[in-house]
Design brief:
The chain is an all-alpha fold. It has 14 helices and two strands, in the order H-H-E-E-H-H-H-H-H-H-H-H-H-H-H-H. The chain has a two-stranded antiparallel sheet.
Length: about 325
């Protein structure tokens, strides 16, 4: 008995050493090359799913932006050949253009005016299309037509309608007694710009309406029932229930419209080509004239960078304003 008790302490260190050796082997196995390879493979596995989207974003979004910025620093011939490095001189020449301040101001007016009027008209139109009435489906289909049609063809049709010799707009206004003689609407810069904004609203309204209609139909009927139980009238329900719950759809519609209207080229070019002179130009048509009429490709690329920065600035300001309003509420 005493011999066994004395033998235990002599055997314990050996067992401890064996246990430590086993743990050391397992620890070395965990840090071995196959183990590290498995961990790296597990970390990189999501790239198999994200890879195609990342490649698409890099090739469609990031690479054109990089090329745009790079071109704005180069001297490029009209045939597209790089003939030297200009650095910031393209930007200096651009901001020395006497017509640029008016173009920038007109662009901001164009975007803010078209988007604001489009949303203001879409809100009551959404309420109409959400109501039940005979022929509602036909009205919805008819509303899609201006959006589904070619923007260029819509602009050309409106240009013909506004013609002072045979346009239907002058004929209708004279028939109802609002005009005593035909007016050449597109020859006057103020009237031409107003009519172009009207055409832009006409083209943008269907998309905005259907985005808001989808948002309106996603609102649960229980919310309106609760508002009626609380005694809220139609106006109070619309202000306190409908508009707040429509905010996500309004945000999407506003941002997409800002981007589309900012870069709208066919309407302006088809109706006035930015004329007379540069009186109805926005940044997109002015950019085209600088590149292809004045043959200053690098300067046009510099304007493209400025245009891109303006779009980001307007969208950021809008998002921050919405965020502040949410925080205040």
């Amino acid at each position: 008995m005493a011999h066994r008790e004395r033998g235990r302490p002599r055997n314990a260190p050996a067992a401890g050493r064996a246990g430590r050796r086993g743990r050391g082997v397992r620890a070395r196995g965990a840090g071995s090359a196959p183990g590290r390879a498995r961990r790296i493979a597990g970390a990189l596995a999501p790239l198999l799913w994200l890879g195609p989207a990342l490649v698409l974003i890099a090739s469609v979004v990031l690479w054109p932006v990089v090329e745009m910025v790079r071109t704005s620093l180069l001297a490029v011939s009209s045939s597209g050949l790089t003939v030297g490095f200009r650095g910031g001189r393209n930007y200096a020449d651009l901001f020395a253009q006497p017509d640029l301040p008016g173009v920038l101001l007109r662009t901001v007016l164009w975007v803010v005016g078209v988007v604001a009027v489009t949303i203001a008209l879409a809100l009551p139109l959404v309420q109409l299309l959400d109501a039940r009435f005979p022929g509602r489906r036909v009205v919805r289909w008819a509303l899609i037509v201006p959006w589904a049609a070619s923007v260029l063809m819509s602009a050309l049709i409106w240009r013909w309608m506004l013609n002072d010799a045979y346009g239907v707009v002058n004929r209708v206004l004279m028939d109802v007694g609002l005009l005593d003689r035909p007016v050449n609407w597109l020859a006057d810069p103020a009237w031409a710009f107003a009519w172009m904004m009207a055409v832009a609203v006409f083209v943008s309204l269907p998309f905005t309406t259907f985005v808001l209609l989808a948002g309106l139909q996603s609102i649960s009927a229980d919310v309106y029932e609760a508002a009626r139980v609380d005694g809220a009238g139609a106006v109070r329900t619309y202000v306190a229930v409908t508009l707040p719950l429509l905010r996500p759809a309004l945000l999407v519609a506003a941002i997409i419209n800002v981007i589309n209207v900012f870069n709208s080229f066919p309407i302006i070019w088809a109706m006035t080509q930015g004329g007379p002179g540069h009186a109805t130009d926005t940044t997109t048509t002015f950019m085209y004239k600088v590149a292809f009429l004045d043959q200053h490709v690098g300067e046009s690329a510099a304007l493209a960078v400025v245009n891109f920065a303006l779009v980001l600035t307007m969208v950021t300001l809008y998002l921050r304003a919405v965020g502040r309003r949410e925080a205040f509420r």
